[in-house]
Structure prediction request, 208 residues.
Amino acid sequence: MQIILADDHKLMRDGLRPFLLELSPEVEIFDAATVDEAIEAVGRAERLALVLLDLKMPGMDGLDGLARIKALRPQVPVVVVSGYSTRDHVMAAVQNGAAGFIPKTVSGTAMVNALRLVLSGERYLPSGTFFGDTEPPPPFDKLSRREGEILGLLLKGGTNKEIALVLDLQEVTIKVHLRSVFRKIAVSNRTQAVRATLSSGWHPPIPG
Prediction:
């Protein structure tokens, strides 16, 4: 599986690389620091599965770089990774063919979960793109605040024990809450819960 990582900051590329390697034991990563380098890499990659694209690279004219990549490889998902994640930025990227939009502020674990969602054929948008924080989308509006906190920590990759430590609860209590969460959002396990949550636009409450 080949991935193109297009960002003009080497520190950013180096920081993302270990997380991209979690996607598959056979990941091959091509770096690009400009739009032209990204286009060249897209053209030569024979097993291209994913493109991560920064919108502020040299040579980028708005969303022109995204459009050029989609024209070359329309079936390959392109995920925008950006420090600018307003609703307008997200919607413009999606309308121009992006399969996902990941803010640079997310954790590495959350990014890996989002990319797995995209690679499975679904779209990832950051929490709150379509829904306000005070009006959770169904069925997440059924969750209690505590259940929402636990689900939010689950999204970050926390184990039951780690979540219990953060919330100062017993591990058995976390298990009980998660069973309730799974029932309310109509999933059967942690993996399904992560997938359903990432694709919903729901924004977890901050523990406290």
Observations:
- The chain has a mean pLDDT of 87.
- Residues 76 and 118 are 10 Å apart (CA to CA).
- Residues 2-119 form a domain with the Rossmann fold fold (CATH 3.40.50.2300).
